[in-house]
Amino acid sequence: MDAATTTWTNEDIISDAIGRGADMALGSGKDGWCLSRWRQFVGSYDLPALPDPTFVVHIAGKKVKTWQRDGWSENPSIPGCATIVPAGQPTGWLVDGELDVVTLSISSGELKATAARDQFSRMRFAFTDPLGVALTRQVLGELYSPQTDERTVYVGALVNALKAHMLRGAIGATAPAFPTADFSAYRIHNVMNAILKNPEGDHSLEAMAADAGLTSSHFCRVFKKATGTTPHQYVMKARLDRAQDLLTSSDLSIATIADQLGFTSQSHFTRAFRQYSGQTPSGWRQTVQ
């Protein structure tokens, strides 16, 4: 059967494109959604147009880029990011290593409201979404616990909450009247966006906590609950991802890259890079070149 056949579901098409089935999947025909977990696939993939819009949550693993008009996206998706793939749009993906993502497909029939249709009219790649990530992690935690009738009801309620968030979350996040005086997910979004945009910046714990309007200890707890990682680990991962890009696309010396990305020394950078990628910076550069 042709993968573009309209009777195929999103999950059928994704499985065919990557050459393996979902690690876990559940769905609700009544509520019009299907949630799947995909793990451990590496390489570049061309994904045909999907019949239904999809919300992708990057749970763990390496960075991912998407094909844009003139090449692979400059800024990658990393754990803690989300992506919206509209129906009817072919996409290309470059996976840098082991990957762990969750997809939530929504029946196109659910998009009756004008606002919901607008939400999925274009692709939105690698935006920060602490609430979406937190809800997804909670769903996964429940799915791997002993099955009971109560758990089934609870998981359905969680996924429906994630679906509701998917349908209106980004709209709420950009509304002019979105609250900023008190702590909200909006402030965590700002901190994460600042790190991804400028990983080499001086992202001290005190400065990030101040930006979020929280004490340092409270900020650490909230940040880890939202992203699954500590603020320091998130900053370090963003810097090392940027280092991989610079080693691949520039002739800058390793010492210069270490200095630009805020490492205290070249030896500190080399130790961190080896722990993250399994290779030294020079070994990585030789491999990719």
TrEMBL record:
Domain HTH araC/xylS-type residues, every copy: 189-287
Pfam families assigned to the protein according to its UniProt record, in alphabetical order: HTH_18 (PF12833)
GO molecular function: DNA-binding transcription factor activity; sequence-specific DNA binding
Alphabetically ordered keywords of this record: DNA-binding, Transcription, Transcription regulation
Keyword Transcription found: yes
UniProt KW Oxidoreductase keyword: no
Gene3D superfamilies recorded: Homeodomain-like
Entry-linked PANTHER family: ARAC SUBFAMILY, HTH-TYPE TRANSCRIPTIONAL ACTIVATOR RHAS-RELATED
Protein's UniProt name: AraC family transcriptional regulator
